[in-house]
Design goal:
6-stranded antiparallel sheet; 6 helices; 29% helix; rod-shaped
């Protein structure tokens, strides 16, 4: 929750337009907790009320011009009051599923048994085609899966296209499942992306070409995983509906 608590022009809120009943009313008017949730009172409104209240209590001849001692006191106390309103609003929002954010939303989700989901790690690998180039080239469609020795699944985030003169390229990949455990580090043997998924239908053409060349799919299209995938530790948007 954000609120403007910076110094303002006198015209932002006119002290003369604030009714005496509002100044004496402790209910807070449209501000504070109400039907629309918690509405912080703006700094400008607090200053205007302070100026109007000073004249009500001390008389119209009280000096509240800019630079006067009374004006400075009102501005300084209004600033702290505005900050208090902002923090109270944030406290109210953090206690409700529909308005909670960041760590507060994490806690509300955990209370409901719904931990915040993570994003899918992303990165890239180099692919090198080692079989004779067939007529028309070779295309490995986006979504084709690769594996690690540890059983992690990774998919091509873009199609890989090979033709005469272009047998090597770097392509974007994305972890098949979300979470920090899929920030795959090639320095860890069980996290190295090095194998093609043997039952992925998107790899049927590669499997046929590899078989014709008496090679494995890994020999036919070599995967080089040099840099760790990243982003799996980032929390995604949580969609929570209270029971």
């Amino acid at each position: 929750m954000a609120s403007d608590i910076s110094p303002i022009e006198d015209a932002a809120f006119d002290p003369a337009a604030i009714a005496e009943a509002e100044l004496r009313d402790s209910a807070g008017g449209p501000y504070g907790l109400g039907d629309k949730g918690f509405v912080p009172k703006p700094y400008a409104r607090l200053v205007a009320e302070g100026l109007a209240r000073a004249k009500l209590y001390f008389g119209d001849d009280i000096d509240v011009r800019p630079g006067s001692a009374m004006r400075r006191i009102i501005e300084m106390t209004s600033l702290d009051h505005a900050r208090t309103y902002v923090h109270l609003g944030a406290l109210y929002d953090s206690g409700n599923v529909s308005t909670a954010r960041e760590a507060a939303l994490d806690r509300r989700g955990e209370e409901l048994g719904l931990p915040r989901p993570f994003l899918q790690a992303e990165g890239s690998v180099q692919l090198d085609l080692a079989i004779p180039m067939p007529a028309g080239g070779v295309v490995i469609d986006a979504g084709a899966r690769m594996l690690t020795a540890g059983g992690h699944h990774v998919a091509l985030a873009q199609s890989a296209r090979f033709s005469e003169g272009q047998t090597s390229q770097t392509v974007a990949v994305q972890a098949f499942y979300p979470g920090p455990q899929h920030n795959l580090d090639p320095a860890q043997p069980d996290q190295l992306i090095a194998r093609w998924h043997p039952f992925d239908s998107k790899l049927e053409t590669l499997q046929r070409l590899a078989a014709d060349a008496d090679m494995t799919t890994e020999e036919a299209l070599v995967i080089t995983h040099a840099n760790a995938l990243a982003g799996g530790s980032v929390a995604g948007q949580m969609n929570v509906t209270a029971p």
